[in-house]
Here is the input.
Amino acid sequence: MKIYSPLFIFIRVLIYSLLVFGMAEGVFFDAGHPRGTSYFSEATFTEVAQEVIFFVLFVLYLILGYKWREIQPVSNIVSVFFLISFFREFNFLSIDWSYPALVALIVLIWLVVRDFKKIKAATIRFFSVPASSWLLAGFLTTYIFSRLMGRSKFWRLMYKDETYRLAKAGTEEGIELLGDTLMLIGAIEFFIYYQVVQKPKQK
Here is the structure.
């Protein structure tokens, strides 16, 4: 099956639509079932889904780099970045999450130094793949837009008291989960591209 055949595109759009729908329903469920006095706490679907997605992204890009050596320098960096994001999600633990994240950051810096001469070519190849657009869209949604939408001063423009906190949490966490989902779709699309387009060229 060709990667851009109408049938294959339809199947992917259908699957991704169901995935996004499921994530939205999970956020809806969390809003209707608060844990005690806390909404969107660490034991909710929204938070657990974010943690799972970050770990899956770490593994997928690590595997992708191993299989597709041409983009491995960039794929490894992306993989470790998601590992750091995964550690960041555990900031609620009494154990300081910053220590394992710092170790991962050191590994990331080491990878940049080690593969410095290969990064330019790998970056050009990595971002020439259409799937990278999903990654960029998800990155901007999760790490920039959701943070801006979560600013308390924004919500205080519309609410006169502290009742804004629920709407703020639901909006910020929901947008963040959407961004994570887009990045997950990007990783899936990278693997599809590798299997259908790139792998046959390597034989």
